Amino acid sequence: MIQAVYIISRTGIPLYFKERIPEEDDVTKITLFSGVISAIRAALIEIDAGEANYFTTQTHEVYIEATNEFAVALVKDIEDKFESEAIDEMIAEVITQITFNFEELPEAGILNAEEEEKMSNIIDDLMIKWDESAKDSSALKKIKESFW
User: Fold this and answer.
1) Across-strand partners of 14?
2) Which helix (H) or strand (E) holds 75?
3) Contact status, residue 101 vs residue 73, Cβ threshold 8 Å
4) pLDDT in tens, 9-18
5) CATH code of residue 52
């Protein structure tokens, strides 16, 4: 299950985030997380190692994809099993939906109320879709295993 989705400007400013377990220090956390992602990406580019697409912590895996205007980071629990192709498809869906629904994202990192609601609806719908897909995959896997 995807635990969080972060939308970050190319300058590293958080534009939007959705976490399944909200915490009191969300603003501080998203700002720090966005900064960490931006710093990792910038450092790797500076030393000609390319951009980071993936990293792990003790508890989570983080997948990142950047466009010309924004970056998307998906965070999942390290115990959850997803095929890398499924993660790539999820990130592509986020990028496609944002690109289709937003002519331009603010570089200052502040969405107005209408933009924030639109972004929230996009991410909520995608997370519901991903959850249903994961449940379907899990059920199918159990059925296949029961035949053996």
Assistant:
1) 8
2) strand 70-77
3) no
4) 777 778 888 8
5) 3.30.450.70
